[in-house]
Design brief:
The chain is built from one helix and ten strands. The protein is mostly beta strands. It starts with 5 loop residues before the first strand and ends in an 8-residue tail after the last strand.
Length: 177
C-alpha cells in the first residue's frame, strides 16, 4: 500500500442508527500494491494506535471498526492500479463521496472510467465510462500493446464557492481530458 492518502472532514452518519456528525475520513489507494482503495474513519486516532486490548476490543464492538470499507477489482473488474489520490467531496445530492479513477491495467474492457463511491455505505453511486480505449465488446484488455486505457488523478472544481463539487476533471493514458 504505497498510495498517498486523502484526508478530509465529512458530515455523515458514521454508523447505522446514529445521527449525522462530523468525522474525519481517509481514502487510500493500494497503488502498485494492488487494485483497490480503502476508507478509514480516523476521527479518533487512538482507536487505530497501539496493540489491541480487551478494553479496546470491547469498545470496538460498540464504536464499530475504523475500517469503513474496501473497494477492489474483486468488486469491479474495471478497477486497476489506482496511482492517483482519490478526492473526497460533497456532491449536489448531499452525499459525501470518494471520486476514484479506475487507474491502470484493469482487467475489465480497457476503457478509462471514473467511480463515484458513497462514503456512508461503500456503494458505487455511479461509474462514468469515457468509452475511450475500450476494445471490442466482450473482450478484456490483456495486451499492453493494445488500446487499453486508464484514468489518472481526478481534480475537482467548486465554481461557486458552496463547497459542493461542480466539475470533475481527469486525464487518461491516451492524452484525453
Amino acid at each position: 500500500v504505497d498510495g498517498t492518502p486523502t484526508v478530509r472532514d465529512v458530515y455523515l452518519t458514521p454508523f447505522p442508527g446514529e445521527v449525522d456528525s462530523w468525522r474525519t475520513y481517509l481514502v487510500g489507494a493500494a497503488r502498485s500494491g494492488g487494485r483497490g482503495i480503502f476508507v478509514l474513519d480516523v476521527t479518533d486516532p487512538s482507536v487505530l494506535a497501539g496493540a489491541a486490548t480487551a478494553a479496546r476490543v470491547a469498545a470496538a464492538e460498540t464504536f464499530n471498526s475504523p475500517v469503513k470499507f474496501e473497494f477492489t477489482s474483486a468488486d469491479d473488474a474495471d478497477l486497476g492500479f489506482v496511482y492517483g489520490r482519490p478526492p473526497i467531496a460533497k456532491m449536489n445530492n448531499g452525499k459525501w463521496v470518494a471520486i476514484v479513477p479506475n487507474g491502470y491495467n484493469s482487467s475489465g474492457d480497457g476503457a478509462a472510467k471514473l467511480f463515484i463511491i458513497d462514503l456512508e455505505n461503500g456503494q458505487v453511486i455511479t461509474k462514468i465510462d469515457t468509452g475511450v480505449g475500450s476494445r471490442a465488446a466482450g473482450k478484456l484488455c490483456t495486451d499492453s500493446d493494445s488500446n487499453c486505457n486508464g484514468l489518472s488523478s481526478p481534480t475537482i472544481a467548486d465554481l461557486d464557492g458552496d463547497f459542493i463539487v461542480d466539475r470533475i476533471y481527469a486525464g487518461d493514458l491516451h492524452g484525453n481530458m
